[in-house]
Amino acid sequence: MSVFQNFQTFFKSLTSPKRVPTFVVTLDALGTLYRFKQPVARQYIDLARKSGLKDNVDTDRLNASFKEAFKHYNAAYPNYGKGQLESPEEWWTKVIDRAFGQVVDQNVELPRNLGSLLYRHFAGRDAYELYPDVWPFFQALRSLKKDFSDPDGPLIATGVVTNSDPRVSTVLQELGLTVQAKPPERRIGDALSNAWTDAKLQRLDGLFSYEALAYSRDNDIDFLSTSYETDCQKPDPDAWIEGQKLVHVLPIIRKAVALRDSPSTNVSEYMQKTAQSAGYRVGELLWLHIGDEYEKDYAGATEASLDALLLTRETDGDMPHKINTSAAPDIPTISSLKEATLIINLKARELFQRGS
Q: Which alpha helices (H) appear in 153-266, and where do they start and end?
């Protein structure tokens, strides 16, 4: 195939792409997928004592002090200090020092690096545990993804949309979930353009060795959208709109990953593969969000024109952010993620049958 013919194929892929029906399931993180092993103040105090704190600290007083400190620094340095402080760890250290400083004796010195110790503690399995229904939920989703694994066919994607700093990725992985290591590259178009440069320089499969081209149907979580990274906090609809930017490159990435297994033997073949990858886009999109907070999850997602389910576990009222949902009757609720699997299966298959 000539260079001109390759260019024609590439141009056709861009102007008349294949539209892939796409079903997206997103979830909140804390309170939906995992919970604290012990109350936050209890964990704070236990670790502080192990680190050398001599003073006795009352959990109720520390809880109140922590809330005040969090509110203070959230106003002074919004979004965990992004753009103002060096890192979220510095922001959390300020919160922790202020919270403890208001409840310990003035003559008592706080353990050195207490903020860093607590920051690292709340980045993994020592602080959190998955809810019992999470594993069966993702096993069911993996089975559904397997049924629709053809890179030319419908796409099922799972994600997390959460008001959090970047530690959520580490937490999910330490709790045993498979999280996409490399985030979907939003500027995949740049990589596609560079394919022409690769071809001119006789570099074969430059696009397909691109490290951001990572996708697997075995992922539990295909993408993460945190408030820290997107500068958008739920219930702001933009929290999901930022997530959509990641979803819209997944059909291209999925196809490119499938083509990666057969290396190109010449420039012409490389350009044909590049053109094929460029020719995939999200078609009809159905998005379902699941979370445990009415305002942040349900109301925010529906304001973004998405479907949503409110998760109201009967035995989880001790989570510090739980609120009474009786003021919001007649909304679709589930009492466990197990209930969500049936709804997801029905919605996905209905969407894909329409697109077939």
A: 167-174, 188-200, 227-230, 238-247, 250-260
What CATH code is carried by the domain that includes residue 61? 1.10.150.720
Token pair belonging to 325: 């949902």
Average predicted confidence (pLDDT) for the chain: 86
Give ∠ CA 334-336-338 in degrees, rounded to 5.
105
Say whether 224 sits in a helix, a strand or coil. strand
Beta bridge partners of 286: 23
Same domain, 271 and 304: yes
214: left (phi over 0), alpha (psi -120 to 50) or beta: beta
Same domain as 181, residue 274: yes
Whether 272 and 324 share a structural domain: yes
> Using CA of residue 154, residue 160, residue 161, residue 167, what is the dihedral sign?
negative
Q: Provide the residue range defining the domain that includes 85.
A: 38-126
Indicate whether 188 and 292 sit together in one domain: yes
Q: What is the DSSP string of 64-100?
A: HHHHHHHHHHHHHSHHHHTTTSS-HHHHHHHHHHHHH
Tens digits of per-residue pLDDT, 66-94?
999 999 999 999 999 999 999 999 999 99
Tokens of 250: 């997944």
Does one domain contain both 92 and 219? Answer: no
**48 with 108: CB under 8 angstroms?**
no
The percent helix, strand, coil of the chain (3-state, each to 5) is: 50, 15, 35
Pair 62, 99: CB distance under 8 Å: yes
Q: Are 168 and 66 contained in the same domain?
A: no
Give the domain CATH number at 350.
3.40.50.1000
Is the peptide bond prior to 320 cis by the omega test (within 30 degrees of 0)? no
Q: Please compute the mean of the pLDDT values over residues 313-330 and round it to a whole number.
A: 60
